[in-house]
Fold each of these.
Amino acid sequence: MTATAGGSDSISGLAAATLSVDGGAAAASALLEDGVHSILVTARDVAGNTTTLTQNVSVDTVPPSVVIAESGSTGNEGWYLSETTLTAETEDILSGVASVQHRIDGGVWMDGASISVQEGVYVIDFRAFDVAGNEQTASQEVHVDTTPPAYAFASSLKGSVLADTVHLT
């Protein structure tokens, strides 16, 4: 972010305006890195009057981090065997996290850093905003199958006597 010194004087006019960032050299403008800065602005009019103003400025250009954690009973090959909860773990060290939202399968965004899903395959998106307005989004596909497979025999075997290899389907 670039900070520029300015000012006005309605009688004699503005002669010069400079700023100093964190006690550095005076200049007409300065590039501000992320963090909190103390800025001293000095303005001088044509008549020779001078005024100064000190202001603290916070700069945050880095979006918050979003990591998705899953919890539930795990099965095979990435499947969950129970209701599964996904939680967005967020952090922003500069201005702080302001809000977190989630949505299922590209639907409507809802407030909250956690969501539970039942049986099915879903894409869950989370997005976090920091106080400065930066946004970060993370997505996770989750597979939940809580129903055991069904089986039935094509014909009744009750009382049958079988020999050799028997194939049951």
Amino acid sequence: MYYRDIWIFMYLSNGMNMDDLVRLRYRNIVDGEIKYIRQKTKRTTNTIQEISIAVTAQMQRIIDTWGNEPFPNNFIFPLIEPTEDAFTHKRRVKNITRCVNNRLKTIARAESIERVTTYTARHSFATVLERGGASIYYISESLGHTSITTTVNYLSSFKTAERLRHAELLTDFARVSSGTE
């Protein structure tokens, strides 16, 4: 339940990555929204863009269930310690990611779902919004991309994989002839 809930929180938080999730503090919640700057953006660009995420009832339930005491300087989730050095922090994030991914693998196998990882939370978020009709501008801003081109390239990779999967259906005669389609 814990690792599943962490993945769901990541998905509902615009596909937030683990490095950002572990750094969230209660002070990042302002007027019912989580506001933060991606760690990756801080390292790779001069354009800093704050991301805002509406805290849904499901997200609040996850915070209430698994979160620390709600004091402004506390991390929302007890995944890292504020006194950790950068090396320890990086190692712990890697271990947490591995634990979540291992649990997701078990859940996916039980449900006959293809591969699911912490990274698929981000892809799923973007894909569901796009297929639901959200504008590319909204998706781009939600993901924290500084360029629409990045978002277009990001989403086009899904379409390529989807086209390939559908093309393979055209020659999957065994399934068609067995009546499973």
